[in-house]
Amino acid sequence: VAGLGNYMLRGTRHNVGMAVLDRLAQQLAVAEGWRVDRQCCADVAMATARGLELVLLKPRRFMNLNGLSVASAAKIYNLRPEDIYLVHDDLDKALGKVAIKLGGSARGHNGVRSCISALYSNEMTRLRVGIGQP
């Protein structure tokens, strides 16, 4: 599960993907388990939910390079694109509304575009979190 965003700009609405991962880590009782993984240039935490092993990932790169971290983690943890969930902001959705999208285009989102490019696939599931228009 990768929370897309700009790591150095925490607290902004475009980093809602990372905020969701922080909350998920709290709910799975692994919030203290974040560690810096230099191989994939990301913060990583391991968790278990309903018998599934999860890799939680917050890239430490700019949004348009998040895919490099996601692809590196996929290689390290032996994950296929269809095993990956991307959590990201969506300007076209009202604030707080969420939707799940299975595969498809990036719809103009630079972080998703970067992931599609780095993984050579658009098969990732996306959790789109509405942030509304400015």
Can you put this structure into words, describing what you see?
The chain is of the alpha/beta class. It has three helices and seven strands, in the order βαβββαββαβ. The strands form two sheets. The protein has a four-stranded mixed β-sheet. The longest helix is centred in the first third of the chain and has 12 residues, at 16-27. The model has no long low-confidence stretch (mean pLDDT 95).
Give the helix/strand layout.
Elements: E1 2-3, H1 16-27, E2 35-37, E3 42-49, E4 52-59, H2 66-76, E5 85-90, E6 98-102, H3 110-119, E7 125-130
Parallel strand pairs: 1-5, 5-7
Antiparallel strand pairs: 2-3, 3-4, 6-7
Count of helix runs: 3
Q: Sum up the overall morphology in one term.
A: globular
Name of the CATH class? Alpha Beta
Mean pLDDT: 95
CATH architecture: 3-Layer(aba) Sandwich
Binned strand content: 25-35%
| Annotated CATH homologous superfamily | Peptidyl-tRNA hydrolase
Q: What structural class is derived from the secondary structure elements?
A: alpha/beta
The proportion of residues forming helix, as a percent range, comes to 10-25%
- Count the E strands: 7
Largest sheet: 4 strands, mixed
- Assembly type of the chains comes to single chain
Please give the radius of gyration in angstroms.
Answer: 13 Å
Structural domain count: 1
Low-confidence stretches: none
Q: What sequence of helices (H) and strands (E) makes up the elements?
A: EHEEEHEEHE
CATH topology, anyone? Rossmann fold
Distance between the termini: 27 Å
Physical arrangement of strands within the biggest beta sheet: 1-5-7-6
